[in-house]
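User: Good morning. I'm curious how GDP-alpha-D-glucose would be positioned relative to this chain. Could you predict the structure with it bound?
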Amino acid sequence: MTRLVAISNRVARPSGGAKSAGGLAVGLLAALEEHGGVWFGWNGRTVDGEPGDVSLEEVGPITFATTDLNKLSYELYYNGFSNTSLWPICHYLLGFYRYERREFDEYRRVNALFARKLLPLLQPDDIIWVHDYHLIPLASELRRAGVTQPIGFFLHTPFPDIEVLRVLPVYRQLLRALCAYDVVGFHTPRDLKCFRDAIEERDIGGIDNADRRGLSRPPVSDVFPIGIDVDACQTLAVETGEKDNVRRMVRHLHGRELLIGVDRLDYSKGLVSRFLSFARLLENYPANRNHVSYIQIAPTTRSGVRAYLEIREELERLAGKINGRFADVDWVPIRYLNRAFDRPTLMAFFREANVGLVTPVRDGMNLVAKEFIAAQDPEDPGVLVLSELAGAAQELRDAVLINPYDRDGVADGMHQALSMPLEERRERHQRMLEILRRNDITAWRTRFIDALLAARRDRTNSS
Ligand code: GDG
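Assistant: Good morning! Here's the predicted structure, ligand included:
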């Protein structure tokens, strides 16, 4: 029996908090719940000494296999190389980028540790699916330890153009490490093209045969746009509508139109520009004053990285400033909630909203955009205002597409969304829902697993 073994930096056990935010966790959990298998990764705890034994917990069809990490290792590998070197580069945000050699060294050591801990759990018929930029070298570590099972890699962020990637002194090593995989997957054709260009056009150096283990050609690379469980979002949105905190939120609108944003607190999500664009909406279209309310939910993430603390303070300051300028005795324009909500409540909030604001300055895909559409009432749907720089914009062409850097343009988009006639809202929503159904979470998982199974057949035929 073929088992799916998924590996990601962080494992999101359902018991570990229904409120945990993050696209990878949401997507992978949905895929594993359907297929079953093993999910291996970090348990969220840091320790002073060496990490202890892997702990195993079975929940329904999933076995969660988790390990601690040493405190300093975590700081260098996670806050350092992963989130201060790779994340900004993948999002073309070089102002946030910094490189330290010892952080990269630790990144490799943690990948080697993951490989050592995973090895005893593997079975001959497994297919292995590695997730995201924290774990690029994992396949070469596993290959060196003798693993011949097919291994795939999926990148949840954008893959940057080679000219941006080149700011990383170790970019060749990372590209070689990606060649140790059988299958490499991306969200959009643009990411795929950047990856292929980087592999083909650059002299990335010889690829060690020990890293390839029976592979004679470059990895199969393709586009696998991540999706959502459309029915589950819809059901949650409908069933949770009567919950106390949802009704309280609606009561406080006093009949005003609702704009909503839900994002991890991350500079890539374009929240500062979004706040300023909302102020521009009130400035440029004064009829909206006292008639619209904007709720922004933004739970803190990566609080060990300074840039994330700074943006949090900046948003608090801005919300205060905008509210101070525009608020009335009975109206607060922005409600900024720096905390997480449970998933059912989020879906119900989406359904109540007239406009969904998804305006990242760069995003691999963006699941919030898809969840917002899925949660709407098809008879009276809200409108999505979506950044052209999010992967989701490649599929959701019927959203109101904006450039997040253009504040007047975003304000125009918000106004267009707020004043869109019912018939047009319905048509746009209907077309986007069809796309969501076609590229849903099952399609994503099935296509990737099929690619891994095909890789296994190729290996058997060529051996
Ligand atoms: C990465 C890529 C790509 C948010 N706040 C709360 C909460 N969330 C949930 C959302 C959504 C998920 O977290 C966020 O997913 P996104 O896709 O929007 O963004 P990232 O976390 O940056 O995800 C991204 C994704 O991976 C998948 O490949 O799309 O481009 O950056 O599901 O609903 N969930 C709960 N409470 C919150 O307060 N429960």
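The chain is about 45% helix and 15% strand. The domain at 230-438 is CATH 3.40.50.2000 (Rossmann fold).
Let me know if you'd like a different ligand tried.
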